[in-house]
Structure formats: structure tokens, C-alpha cells
Amino acid sequence: MVRVDNNTLYNNMFKKKPTLKPSANVKGSERKKVYSTLASTYSLPDNISEDGKLAVLPKTIKSARYATFQNDNGRLFTSETGVPLWFDLSHPNDPVGELVPSLYTLWSAAFLVPILITNGFVISKLCNGADLMIPGIFDESVPHDLPGGAIVGIANYLNPTVPLAIGYAEVDNLRNRVEANEGGVGIKIVHYVGDTLFEMVRGDKVIPEELNVITPLAENATEGPIPVVGNIESANKNIGDANAGTYDVSPASGDGDYENNNDSEEDDDSNEIERVTENFAQASINQTFELQTESKQNSDNELDDKDESIKLTTAEIDELFRKALLQTLHKAIASSIKTPLPASQFLSSYILPNLAISDPSVVLKNTSWKKATKFFKSMEKAGFVKVKEKGGEVIILSIAGKDNVTVAKFETYSVKKPATAVSSSNSSGSSMMNLFEFYRAKNSNNPLFDAGVYYTVQELSNTIQAYIAAHRDTVVNRVKPKEIIVDEVLAKTLSLGLGSRLGRDKINDAVLARFEKYHVLTKPGQTTVDRSHMKGVAKKGPVPKILANIETRMRGKVVTVISGLEPFKIDPVFLADELRVACAGSTTVTKGVKDEDIVTVQGPQEAAVRKALMKRGVREAWVVVNNRSKKGRK
């Protein structure tokens, strides 16, 4: 069991992005020394399998020096593709230091360290920078011999083999302290899902559901130590105790504590476990990350999904759409849907996401109505919606609410929410990033548009035109049909005076003036974006540009300075490594204004820079080259 000096590691090491120097390949002989150090430190058996060894340390690795925001220097080992594997804080007389695994390494080699268990609420706090307090630990998951300074993983009891944070024991005899229900910090957290080390892996990431915590041994091997992960079954039996009451979570500084406000007796009843599971399922950390590596488990699941075929009758599909509409209307009682709006938008944004079954066969053309027009007219006869058809487009004028008994008493059901996908308008190349542009209302009191929704230009136009069509008798100038008379709703929507007049061709511009522009850049090949998860994804303003300035420095030295990489999720260190080889010149990575990463390469390298950026999916229109050198100014 590895034990580190508590004064060496610091909590929240990667709360802010570390400064990385260019990486270099690790020679085979040096890699063997690193593995030997790991095997000794983490008590790996001699008869561990080859797959187990590679899970601990791949054959090809890179290393780079780094400095944390706390000005602590260390060494980072990464895979060939840049996935962080191990990190340390080196001492002057110790070139390697105490190596700590990343979460990506533990997900490949969960047998390396003991895994302590807590609940989803606490996990969510750890992944926001808090330390793990003693009352938040399930006692049965703590090994009796766990010393102070021991490196451990932290997992949610719902997935007890999958660590979501890594830290070290702050105190000795942690098991006894947990059983005695003492207070204070139990585990100092040094790395967690969502910190800057975790986010070094570009693109989406997925957290595994289950891992094997048994050390894999070579064939014909029958003996070998198995690391202690605690008694998972006993820990699950004590969920009621560990989750009882509420907890005050300390900030990253560790000033506070988790305080158990209630005393509860042990309850092994399975119903109690189910109740606690339901309570904390909602508070668990969002496990929707996608990993860039393929796993056998995911492949098997995909094959299983493809093999499953759902055979539904027309009547059953009809009922699915009817219930999806009722669920939409029932939800709208608490969270209103602003009407009028185009039926196509109502269908795609509200009804389809509420279908109980997500299957290719569950589409309108397989219903008895066949088309959306007939479906909505049928629902109008049932009293659920009011519609109007104008120029072939069906408009939803209003929807039934709590006054409708069927809607009010409808029992909602859980659905596997599908992506509210929007296609890109520039998805020509599968190897290129794609740009999506959205608009969000500036004011929350907009009568036609929800402030929290991201709309496309077409949706804004469709909605405003649907309103005009539904109220043409009052808003369209009969003498000048191309002129709109602003009513109360339009006055609030467009911030115009009541009764003022506006040309139809000016409506869209007037709408856009009341909205803020956002953009989303996708990874190469992704041609849709899920609007149900836009928080933190959509960025305000138009798409930024990558700047490549060719400049003349001291003594006539010409360099190319590249900035603006972060919005495109381009790793500056790996870009610098590639350009150093491609240009046969020196490269550096420095910090600019607002902690921005800047890559500088020797010589005028416009062609090489464009090629390297295009290789990473950056379109030519997003790169601006300014030749400010003496030669460029002639």
C-alpha cells in the first residue's frame, strides 16, 4: 500500500490549469525504471499479467515537467495520445518523486489502490473542490490497516468499484475514526472528475459503470496479493447510517466539516436501501462523459442494442404519441410552454423527447395519422390543443392545462431522454469541426420565447411568423399587408412602442436585436448538438478566431506566434511538439493575457500552422494570419 508524505501533495492541485512544458518520449530503459518504481510502491506481484502491466503503464509513454498554480513543480506521464497517466511532485534529490495515478489509470487498473465509498451527494462536492470528511465515509470500505498518507480512490456506493476522485489519508487509524463518527478531514483530494488534469483529454469522456478490482495474474499463476477494497456488501448494508441526516460540506480550504445532524439506527431492510438509492440517484455526479477509447463492454452493449428489435402495432405507437403529448401538457402546468408556435417545433422540442420508447419504428408515419397535421387535428378534437392551419403549416395556438381533467391527472413516466439534436450547416467534412449558432433571449419576460432556450435563426423566424399568422386580423396592416402593427405581445417581444409599425422584412432583425448570440464548436465529424445539455457548452458571441502572427523579434529573428487555441480544445503542448518536428525549429509554450496558452515557432510558418490546425479539424475560415515581419510589410 503506497504511502506518501502529506507535505508533498496538496489538495486541489489541478483546480487551475497547470503550466506544461513540451513533452518528450520516454525511452524503453527509463520506462522500465518507472514501472519498477510503481511495482515496488504499489506492491504489484511479480506474476501480474502482461495486460495488467500495460494497464498500469503502457509501452509508449511521454513525460513533461509541469508547475501547478501553487508553484509546485512535478512530472507528468501521459500516453502516446496525451491521456494523463501518472503525476508527481518531485523533490530536488528525487527525480521521480511519489507517483500518483490519474483517474484514467485507475479506470484501467482499479486494483492499484484501496477504494473508499461515499454517497452521490458527497461525490458531487468532491468534484467541486471539497475534501472528504470523516462522517462522509462508509466505514466498512476503509481497510483496517490504512495508514495516514495512503493513496486511495473515492467511489459512489452505486458504483463502488469506479473511483471518481483520488486523494490521500489525512490521518492514521482512519477506520477507527470513521467508526467513532469523529469529525474533520479524512481524505485530502488531489484529483477528481472535471478538474484540469481530467480535462486534458480532449473531447467527450465516459465514466465506466463497473471495474475489476482484482489484480490480473499471468496464466498458471494461482497466487498474488489482492488489494483491500473493503467489504462492499457490508458497506451497502450501512447505507442508511452513512446517508442519515444532512452534511455541511467544507470548501476547498478545508475550514468546514461534514456534520451528521441526525442519529439513525442501522437498518438492513432492502426497502430502506431502495429509498436511499432513490434519494441520492438525483444528486449523483453526472456520469455522461464519453471516453475516446473503445471498451469491450461498450461494444457488447452496442451489439445487444442492435440485436433488440421492438415490434409494435399501429395502435401501440398511436398510444405512445398520445401519452407523449399528455406528458408534455402535464409538465407544462409547472413549466409553461409559450404559444403560438409551429407544430413542427412543438413536435420535435416537446413531444418526441417524451416518448416512452426510443426506437426507429416509433415515428409518426407508423401511426394511424401518418402525418403531423392529422395527429394535431385529432388531438384538437380530443380537447388537448387548439390548432390553425396556414399556408400548409400547422400552428399550435394553445394547449390544455390543469383545467383539463385528463391532463391534470395524467401520471408521468420516466423516459430515456433522446438528444434534442440540431444539424450543422457546415458539416461538409467528417474530419472537420462543425459550428452551430444559437440565440437566447436577453430578457426573461419575453412573451413568445423562453429565456433559457437556445433557438436557431429559423426557429425564431418560424415562431414570430406563426404569431403574425395567428393574429393577422389585428397585427397586419390591411392597407399595407407588408407592414406589421405592433400589438402588446410584439411590443414586449421586440421592445417597440405599442401601435408602432414595422415592415415584414424588418421583423427578423428586430427579433435578433433582443437576443444574444451563442456558438457551439463540435469535435471533428460531429454533425449534431444536443440542446438539452447546453450549459457550459454554448459560448457567448460568434466563433472566435485562431491568430497566427508572423513577427520580427530582436536581431531580425522571425517567429510565428499562435494564440486563441483554447476555444478549439487544441492542446498547445502537443501542437508545439508537432510544429517543432514539421518546421525543424524550436518551439515554446508560454502564457499570455488572461492565462492564455501561446505557441511560438521559429520562422515564418503559415503553411505548417494551417496544416497542423486543419489536421485537428479547424476550418480555414477560423484561422487569421497576420504577417507583421519586415518581409511581410514590404
Automatic annotation (TrEMBL):
SUPFAM superfamilies: eIF1-like (SSF55159), PUA domain-like (SSF88697). CDD domains: eIF2D_C (cd11608), PUA_eIF2d-like (cd21156). Residues 256-271 have a biased composition (Acidic residues). Gene3D superfamilies: 3.10.400.20, SUI1-like domain. InterPro entries: EIF2D (IPR039757), eIF2D_SUI1 (IPR039759), Pre-PUA (IPR041366), PUA-like_sf (IPR015947), PUA_eIF2d-like (IPR048248), SUI1 (IPR001950), SUI1_dom_sf (IPR036877), WH_eIF2D (IPR057429). One of its GO terms (biological process) is formation of translation preinitiation complex. Residues 242-272 are annotated as: Disordered. Residues 546-617 form the SUI1 domain. Pfam families: Pre-PUA, PUA_elF2D, SUI1, WHD_eIF2D. One of its GO terms (molecular function) is translation initiation factor activity. PANTHER family: EUKARYOTIC TRANSLATION INITIATION FACTOR 2D. This is SUI1 domain-containing protein. It comes from Nadsonia fulvescens var. elongata DSM 6958. The lineage of its organism: Eukaryota, Fungi, Dikarya, Ascomycota, Saccharomycotina.
